[in-house]
Amino acid sequence: MRAPRGGRPVGRGTRRGLTALGLALALLTGACAQGSTGSADTSEASAPSAGARAAAAQERLAKNTLVPLEGEAPAPELPVTVDSSDGRKVTVTDTSRILPLNGGVAEIVFTLGLGDRVVGRDITATFEEAKKLPQVTKAHDVSAESVLSLEPTVVLADTDTGPGEAIDQIRDAGIPVVVLDPATELSDVTTRTTRIAEALGVPAAGRALNTRMSDELAAARAAVPEGSRPKVAFLYMRGSAAVYLIGGRGSGADSLLDAAGAVDAGTDAGLDRPFTPITTEALAQAQPDVILMMTKGLESVGGLDGLLRIPGIAQTPAGMNRRIVDLEDGVLLSFGPRTPLVIDILVDRVHRK
Domains of the chain by range and CATH? Predict the structure, then answer.
C-alpha cells in the first residue's frame, strides 16, 4: 500500500501569541534572511522561536489559502515536449485550460501563478481557491465524461490516477495528459515542482518556487531545539472503515519527521513497509513519545479519548502523556508549497515537553 495522501489510502494495486497577521507572515517568509549579517549573538536574538513560527503557520493553514509567487503571473513559453511517467513523450501546445487531477499538483499550479487557468479539480484539492471549481472525480476515481466536458487543453495526473480506461479516453480525445510520479517524501517536492513548471512552459517560475520553499524549509529546521529527538509514530486511521495502520519506512511521514528533528518510531522499530496494521506488540516495540495523525482520522475514532481506548495506545509514552498531534488531512502529506508550514508546526509541537 502506498502512503495515504490527501487523507485517503491509495491501493489500486499499483498505489497541516503573534500580535498581528503581518508579523506572522513576515516570520514565515523572512526568517532565513534575518541575522544573515552581523554577529552570531545578534542572529540568535533575532531568530523567531518555534512557537512563533508555528503560530504563523497555523494561522496560514486555518485560512486554507495559497500564496502565489510574487510579481506578475508567468507567461508560458510553448510548445514544450516533456517526459511523462507512463513512458510517453507529451507535447503541450496550450495551457489556457489546465486540469490537475491531484490536490497537491493543483496547489503547485496555483502557487506558480497559473490558478486562473485551472478549470476543474480533484476531490483532494480542498484549498479555498479551488473550492468553486467543478469536481471531476467520483469516489476518488476520475470521470472521463466530467473531464471532457470542461474542454481542458492539458491534464496533469499521477501514476495512481485512474481508472486507466478513463485516462485512455481523455488521451484518445486528443488532450495531452502528463503523468507524474507521486510525491511520497520531502525530497520529491523539488522534482515534482520542476516537472509541473516545465510541462506548463514556465520553468523559471518552477525554479523560483523551489528556491522559496527551500528557504522556508531551512528556516523551519533552524528552529529545532538542540539535543531533542522525540520518537513520533504516524498513525493512519479510519474508524468507520476499521483501518488502523502505523507508518514505517516510506510512509511519507518519516520524511517529514526527520526534517522536523524527530525520529519516526515505526521505522526505528524496524517496520520496513510504509504501513503496517496496528498491534499492541507493534506499539510496545515502537514506544512513541508523540503520536501524529490526520485530523479526520483522529475524529473517526472518537477523538483523543477514543484513540486511547484502542488496545496498546494508552500504554505508550505518548498515550500516557496524551501527546497527540493532528494536522489537516489535505495538508499533512501533500508535499507541496504548504509543506514548510507543516514542518513549522511539527517542529514546535513534537518537541514540547
Answer: 2-15+223-350 (3.40.50.1980), 80-201 (3.40.50.1980)
Condensed to tens digits (0 to 9), the pLDDT of residues 239-278 reads 989 999 999 999 999 999 999 999 999 999 999 999 999 9
- C-alpha to C-alpha distance for 101 and 162, rounded to whole angstroms: 10
pLDDT digits (tens, 9 = 90+) for 116-174: 999 999 998 989 999 999 999 987 799 999 999 999 999 999 999 999 999 999 999 99
pLDDT at 166: 97
- Look up residue 113 and give its three cell numbers: 501563478
The answer to whether the pTM exceeds 0.85 is no
3-state secondary structure the chain: CEEEECCEEECCCCCCCCCCHHHHHHHHHHCCCCCCCCCHHHHHHHCCCHHHHHHHHHHHHHHCCCCCCCCCCCCCCCCEEEECCCCCEEEECCCCCEEECCHHHHHHHHHHHHHHHECCECCCCCCHHHCCCCECEECCEECHHHHHHCCCCEEEEECCCCCHHHHHHHHHCCCCEEEECCCCCCCHHHHHHHHHHHHCCCHHHHHHHHHHHHHHHHHHHCCCCCCCCCEEEEEEEEHHHCEEEEECCCCCHHHHHHHCCCEEHHHHCCCCCCEEECCHHHHHHHCCCEEEEEHHHHHHCCHHHHHHCCCCCCCCHHHHCCCEEEECHHHHCCCCCCHHHHHHHHHHHHCCC
Cell numbers 526568517: residue: 31
